[in-house]
Amino acid sequence: MHPNQIKQWKDQLLDGVTDVFDDNPKASKEPEIDVKSLHAKIGQLMLENDFLEGALNKAGLLPSAKK
Questions:
Q1: Domain of life of the organism in this record (predicted)?
Q2: What is the separation of C-alpha 62 from the centre of its chain, rounded to a whole number of angstroms?
Q3: Which of 3, 30, 51, 62 would disulfide-bridge 56, Cβ 3.0–4.6 Å?
Q4: Whole-angstrom Cα Rg for the chain
């Protein structure tokens, strides 16, 4: 290890150490999650899957092991 690299790491640690113990972080890197839209998408996909399963059953294209 080169001493300059260790000094850089130490400086980065000292600059960011207050963020580790801060109750209110400055900026979150994770995007805001819209749970409502995710639930709506899950509902839509479940409805589509149920519809397609019914159509395949009627057409006799779904394996009998699935029943």
A1: Bacteria
A2: 32
A3: 62
A4: 26
**Can you give the pLDDT at residue 28?**
61
* In the chain, where the domains are located: 3-59
Residue whose token pair is 């600059």: 15
Residue 29 to residue 14: CA distance in whole angstroms: 20
The pair of three-digit structure tokens given for residue 51, joined into one six-digit string? 């519809």
- pTM equals 0.48
Distance of CA 32 to the CA centre of its chain: 11
